[in-house]
Known about the structure:
By secondary structure, the chain is of the alpha/beta class. It has two domains: 6-187, Vaccinia Virus protein VP39 (Rossmann fold); 197-260, rRNA adenine dimethylase, C-terminal domain (Helicase, Ruva Protein, domain 3), CATH 1.10.8. The chain contains eleven helices and nine strands. The strands form two sheets. The chain has a seven-stranded mixed sheet with strand order 4-3-2-5-6-9-7. α2 links the parallel β2 and β3 (54-58). α1 crosses α2 (42-49) and α8 crosses α11. The longest helix is centred in the C-terminal third of the chain and has 15 residues, at 246-260. The chain is elongated. The termini are far apart.
Amino acid sequence: MIKAKKSLGQNFLIDKLILEKITDTTDIQNKIVLEVGPGTGNLTSFILKKNPKKLFVIEKDNELAKDLENKFNNQITVINDDILKIDETLLFKEKVVVFGNLPYNISTEILSKWIVNLKENFWFESLILMFQKEVADRIVAKFNTSNYGRLSIISNWKLNIKKICDIKPDSFYPKPKIDSSLLYFFPKKNFIKINDPNNLEKITRVFFNQRRKMLKKPYNQLFNGNQKVLDMLDVNLNSRPQNLDLETYYKLASEYEKLRS
C-alpha cells in the first residue's frame, strides 16, 4: 500500500458513498474533466464510470503519478506536476469540470490562484472541491457572521457557491483530525468588473487587518476620506469589516481603481 505523505497533505478518500456523491454533483458525460490530487485513484475510478469525454489528472507525487499511469493505462492523461505552477487556460481548449480533494495545506492558495486568474471567459464549467470544514465555512460565510472575511469575499466575486455536504474523518485514510466539506462552484453570469483582482485583495486585506475595529481608519488609508464614495455606496464608517456585504466590497474595489486611474 502506498503511504500518504504528510508533507503533501495527503489523505486518501476511501468512502464509496462519498465518492459516488461527489461524482453525482454534476453531469460529466462526454465532458472534459480535470481531477486535482487524485492520490491512489479512488475518485478517478468513479469519474470514469460517468463516461467523461477525456480525463486529465494532476498529481505532484512522482510515485503516485506512475502508479496512476499503470493502474488506468490509457484511460486517463496523467500530468506529473505542481498544480500551483500550471496555467490551466493553456491546457484546455474547451471548458472543463474540475474535481479536487485539495491538499489542506494549499487549498486556499489553489482556489485564490484560480479566482485571481479568471478572465472574462471561464476556463472551467464548474469546480467540485473538498476543503477542511473550517475553510469551507469561511468560503460560504454570509456577512455579519464571524466566519465572514477575505476568503468569503474573494471566493464569491465571480462564482456561485453551494455546499454539498460535510465529510467525517472516517471517510479518509489516513484519518485527518478534522471534518471536511464538499463545495460546488459555478460561474456567475453577472458580476462587478474589477480590472485588477489585486485591488480586491488589497481592499479586503486592509479592511480585515483589524476586523474588530471600525472602518474609519482603513477607509481613510485607502480613499483619503473621500465622501463621494461613502455616499454612493452608503457605507457607515462606524460599522466593522464584517458588516459590509459582498457587493459593497466589489464596488469599493471598483471605485478604488477609478480613483487611481
